[in-house]
Amino acid sequence: MNFKEAKQHKKESLENADDTVLNLFHVVITPANTDESAKFIEDFLKSPESFNDESCQEYCSDGEYEVVSFKKDTESN
Q: What are the structural domain ranges in the chain?
């Protein structure tokens, strides 16, 4: 999906998620390309607060995105 579609999908996902999911998981837009997504997530995990939805665009070479969720590091919370 393109970035605009991914942003809408993320918004809907967050609206439909319960508080437990929101507290335990990151929900982010990443490049659809696996290698680009892995690099984005690696960098994101170093400093989640410094990333926003638009940050993923710097990592994407083809304009295709997806919305993913993954468990937060609860040890640092």
A: 3-72
